[in-house]
Amino acid sequence: MARDDIDKEIAELRARVEQLAQERRARESGEPPTVDPDSVPTGDPDTPEGTNPEDVENTEEVSDAETEGPTIVDHIRDLIKNLDEELQETKPLTLLGVFALGLLVGRLTAK
User: Fold this and answer.
1) How far is CA 31 from each of CA 20, 24, 27, 40, rounded to the nearest angstrom?
2) Which one, of 60, 80, 64, lies nearest residue 72 by Cα?
């Protein structure tokens, strides 16, 4: 980013912070908030400048379709459920043996 762009963005952010501070003070005092018409952004804040709003809507439809299938969280949940079932079915002596073997191998390879 160029220095001018950064300065412009900082000025916009400061104006937005001041506006939010005024709104907060107005809420706390019970007065209606005052809005500076120059500080109100034009257009949709979720739509980046230079994009067609229809394209953004189409993108949202595609991303909704992608999330309908199983997610990573679902796969992890299934894995944990399956591991829990396996641990319940496994004999305790086998689990202790595997734990001891892992402890022994860990100690031998740490040196």
Assistant:
1) 14, 10, 6, 19
2) 80
Name the residue ranges covered by the structural domains of the chain.
1-41, 72-110
> How many residues are present in the chain?
111
> How far is Cα 66 from Cα 59, in angstroms, rounded to an integer?
11
Residue 15 pLDDT: 92
User: Looking up tokens 């939010």, which residue turns up?
Assistant: 20
pTM for the model: 0.31
- Phi then psi dihedrals of residue 80, to 5 deg: -65, -40
Between the alpha carbon of residue 95 and those of residues 57, 80, 81, 85, the distances in Å are 53, 17, 18, 14
Q: Cα angle at 69 between 66 and 70, to 5 degrees?
A: 125
CA 63 – CA 3 distance, rounded (Å): 35
pLDDT value at 104 more than 90: yes
